[in-house]
Amino acid sequence: MNRRVTWTLTAAGFGAALAAAYPLLLRDRCLHWGATPDEAFRPIPGDDLVPDPDVLSTRAVTIDAPPEAIWPWLVQMGSGRAGAYTFDWIENLFGLDMHSADEILPEFQDLKAGDVLPVGADGPGMTVAILEPDRVLCLRADNAEWVWTFALYPVDGGTRLISRNLIATPGVSGARRLFNLLFLEPGSLVMERKMLLGIKERAERTPRAQTPEPAAT
């Protein structure tokens, strides 16, 4: 057996082992990074918008800042706005026009329920389904199969920022479901972990007295 065949079989075996191990040993950590068991399944606003999701992820981080110092960073997120505080170069490979801001942008603070945030120039829209200042920001995709909620909970030492994704995948083939399971779910952890830590870093250096006003219209 030549070396190329040996390496191919080894790689295939490793891939098969990883595919078998992920659902059993790693998936829970991937979907619930940073969240406590209570937070992972605690009902939060927006859950009823996708009542029977195929994927439910709840990720969280503790931020040494009050909710009002975190909120401005959340409401200004989006394509062509303040970005997503993650790996811009990856986002922009897909034409999402993400440029993560390092300051609070007053022109993007006046977000309201019913506003639609585009996902890239030609992508779908995310409608603001629920907006409770300093508490909850819930976005719902045009096809109603994806809801993304950010919730803020004051705790000793700061605030818990919880990010929950509810995704329904009706009509998706078995092969596509396997691809989502083994590639998109771990990929989402890489991007969302960077986002949550990016919000944390920005909010913790926001002056406590800073309370930005929406831009005049």
In short:
The protein is α+β, with helices and mostly antiparallel strands and 217 residues long. The chain contains 5 helices and 6 strands, in the order H-H-E-H-H-E-E-E-E-E-H. It has helices at residues 3-31, 37-41, 67-75, 88-93, 174-204; strands at 55-63, 116-118, 125-132, 136-141, 146-155, 158-167.
Key words describing this protein structure:
2 domains; alpha+beta; Alpha-D-Glucose-1,6-Bisphosphate, Chain A, domain 4; globular; 6-stranded antiparallel beta sheet; 217 residues; 5 helices
Mean pLDDT: 83
Rg (CA only)? 19 Å
The spatial strand order of the largest sheet comes to 1-6-5-4-3-2
Structural class: alpha+beta
Question: Total strand count, please?
Answer: 6
Q: Compute the number of structural domains.
A: 2
Order of helices and strands: HHEHHEEEEEH
Query: Count of helical segments?
Result: 5
CATH homologous superfamily descriptor of the largest domain: START domain
Q: Please state roughly what percent of the residues sit in beta strands, choosing from under 5%, 5-15%, 15-25%, 25-35%, 35-45% or over 45%.
A: 15-25%
Q: Major sheet: size, sense and barrel closure?
A: 6 strands, antiparallel
Helix content: 25-40%
Unreliable stretches: 9-19
Name of the level-1 CATH class of the largest domain: Alpha Beta
Distance between the termini: 72 Å
Indicate the CATH topology of the largest domain: Alpha-D-Glucose-1,6-Bisphosphate, Chain A, domain 4
Describe the structure.
The protein has two domains: about 1-30; about 30-205, Alpha-D-Glucose-1,6-Bisphosphate, Chain A, domain 4 (2-Layer Sandwich). The termini are far apart. It has helices spanning about 5-30, 35-40, 65-75, 90-95, 175-205; strands spanning about 55-65, 115-120, 125-130, 135-140, 145-155, 160-165. It is an alpha+beta fold and about 220 residues long. Residues about 10-20 have low confidence and may be disordered. It has a six-stranded antiparallel beta sheet.
